[in-house]
Input
Amino acid sequence: MVALIGASPTLLLTAVIYGLAAAFTLGVKEPMEGEAEAEERKLHISSDVTPVLGTSRWHTLTEGWKMIWKTPRLRVLTFMDMIDMLGGSIWVGAFTLAFVQVALGQGEEWWGFINAAYFAGTIGGGLLVHTLARIIGNRYFAVMMIGMAGYGVLTAFYAMNTQPFVALIFVMLMGPFAELSMINRRTLIQSSVAKLLLPKVLSAQASLMHLVFCISLLGMAGLAEYIGIVNLYLFASRLTIVAIFVGLLNYRAFRDQAAPEAVMD
Output
C-alpha cells in the first residue's frame, strides 16, 4: 500500500480503519445480569474442571495462573502456545525484511507484499473456518493439529525458497493453516473454563505470552547472527513441530477432560 499510494495516505487510511473498528466495538453487548448469576451458580458445580481458588486479593491476582497449572488441558495448551510463540517472532518486521533482502534478493517493498499476502491468507482462513464449522464439529484438537502441521511445513518451504512470487504463495497459504490452529486452540481454551473465570485465565495467558515473545525477540536476534536468517526460519518451523509433539504426547488431556458446560449440565 505504501508503494502504491505513499506513506501519509496509508497512515490516514489506517486511522480510518481503526475508527471503524472502534465504532463496531460499540455494538458488543455485555451478558445479561441474569445470565451472569446463572453462570456463577454453574461455576460452583464445575469446580472439578476449574476449581474456585479463594476470594482474597492474592487469590484474585493468581487465580488465573493457578487455574492454568491445575487444569491439564489448559496447561498443555499454554505450553504449546509458548513453544509456538518462541518461533512466532520470526514474522516481526526486522526478521522479515532481512529474509526478503538476503534470501529473496528483493527490496524493502517486498516486505510489505509478504505481510499483505500473509494477512490476506488469514482473512481467507477465518472465512474457511466459518465455512467448515459444521464439518469441524467438536474435532477441535485434530483440526488444531492439522493447522499447526500445515503452518510448520509451509514455513520450512518458505525458508528454503528463493523465488519472490513463490514466497508470496507460501505465505498466503500459511494464513488459513494459522487460523485453523489459532481459532481451534482458543475454542479449546474457552471450552475448558467457566465463562466468569475465562477473563482471568486469558489475562494470565496474555501476560505469559508477552513475556515469551520478548524473550523470543532477544533470542532469535542473537540466533540470526549465529546461524543466518534462512536457518532461523527453519528453526522456527521445527519449534512448531515440537509443539505438535507436545500436544500428541498429552492427548489424554483433550480426550478425557469434559468441557465445563458439559459438567454443568
About this structure: Residues 198-227 form the longest helix (30 residues). The chain has 14 helices and no strands. The mean pLDDT is 82.
